[in-house]
Design goal:
binds coenzyme A; alpha+beta; single chain; 5 helices; 180 residues; Aminopeptidase
Length: 180
């Protein structure tokens, strides 16, 4: 079991860019899809539709999450990036960052969160399933190396009960004593 660690979560600033880039390079850009990761992330941080949250532990950036408030689905925000530095993994930071993203969605009146995950990324898929995300589709050849992405979604509001199905007629319900 990993030792207890005090972790703070806050909105990222441009001063966090080098640390975020380092985590991005070692955890997400492993197939070198992005030649200029720092330039890419800098642009993403400048975009007003994106929210970056970092996890800080012992004065170090331990992980980050990037959410996009203008995803393809009108009622959902999308988690574009999530990564935790290798030395800080399995301490609940990834899950806590996801909770932050879900709170951002709720504060901005969105009803759901979507994300895309490599079909072969069992660690991340497990984490998402544990947090209530369900596979809702897949994107063939989504990543530069040809890997498929699973589209996952979590609803943050109770789903409306289905209006289809059987309904007992009023007189039967009264006869059965179900209504007055
Ligand atoms: C996926 C990723 C973000 C998860 O980050 P993390 O901080 O390790 O995630 P968590 O700690 O919240 O959860 C992971 C595991 O740690 C366990 N855990 C959580 N808190 C714990 C604690 N205090 N002590 C021990 N284990 C703990 C969880 O139960 C979970 O274990 P399980 O998968 O065996 O059930 C991280 O592995 C990563 O950066 N991977 C590379 C990049 C990546 O794949 N990103 C996702 C792209 S879609």
């Amino acid at each position: 079991m990993a030792s207890k660690l005090s972790i703070a979560f806050r909105k990222a600033t441009r001063r966090d860019l080098p640390a975020i880039t380092k985590i991005f390079e070692s955890s997400l850009n492993t197939t070198h899809e992005f030649d200029d990761a720092r330039g890419y992330l800098s642009e993403q941080m400048r975009d007003a539709d994106n929210r970056f949250v970092v996890a800080e532990a012992g004065g170090k950036i331990a992980g980050f999450i990037q959410t996009d408030l203008t995803s393809d689905t009108a009622d959902a925000i999308n988690i574009d990036q999530l990564a935790v530095d290798r030395s800080f993994r399995h301490r609940g930071i990834g899950s806590a960052l996801m909770k932050k993203a879900e709170n951002i969605a709720l504060r901005n009146h969105f009803k759901a969160v979507t994300l895309q995950v490599r079909a072969d990324n069992d660690n991340a898929k497990h984490l998402y399933e544990e947090r209530g995300y369900k596979k809702v589709g897949s994107h063939w050849w989504y990543y530069g190396d040809g890997t498929t992405a699973y589209e996952m979604k979590k609803s943050l509001v109770p789903e409306k009960p289905s209006t289809s199905g059987w309904h007992l007629p009023g007189f039967v319900k009264r006869w059965m004593g179900l209504t007055a």
